[in-house]
Amino acid sequence: MEVKDQTIIYPLPDDVLLTEKENKWRIKLPDEYKEFIKICNGASPVKASFRCNNHSYTIDRFLCILKVIGESDDEFYDIGVVRTQLEERIVADENLVGTELLPIAALFAGDFVFLDYRNTATTEPTVCVWNHEESSDLDPVTYFTSNTFEEFLIMLT
Q: I want to staple 50 with a disulfide (CB 3.0 to 4.6 A). Which of 12, 32, 116, 155 is the partner?
């Protein structure tokens, strides 16, 4: 994937950090996503537009995976930080342990792209758009986008 110059956020995550995050979130990240994040961590794509739910969306940037220690402005784009900020608006069950919706990209105007683990019979999540205006506490509103992360990348124009 082609990304805009100087938008990758360093340090790039390694397998140890990705495994740590998977265990914390109680999910298995798709292999395609792990390979992507290890080279395009937090990057803004050149081809950033896609269609979903009869709307056109534009990716501002993909979120990153960092070891957050409070020393970098880039930590604002860390998946865990964004997940914490959205907290109750991205879960339907306040007693949930683990993750059903994992933010992976920030969209123009406040929405996000998520890996959606809610309806997976396997470990492969689908991809959806989370609508920030329609969502409320314990009632996330999402729109199916693609069956896989790889399929989602192919959609970008």
A: 155
Class of residue 71 by CB neighbours under 10 A (exposed 0-12, middle 13-18, buried 19+): exposed
Residue carrying structure tokens 């860390």: 78
Output DSSP code: residue 81: H
Q: What is the DSSP letter of 78?
A: B
Question: What is the total residue count of the chain?
Answer: 157
84 three-class SS: helix
pLDDT in tens, 82-107: 999 998 999 988 888 889 999 999 99
Q: What is the mean pLDDT of residues 18-31?
A: 95
| pTM flag (> 0.70) | yes
Contact between 70 and 78 under an 8 Å Cβ cutoff? The reply is: no
Give CA–CA dist 87/110, Å, rounded: 15
The type of residue at 49 is S
Helix (H, G, I), strand (E, B) or coil at 119: coil
Contact between 66 and 72 under an 8 Å Cβ cutoff? The reply is: yes
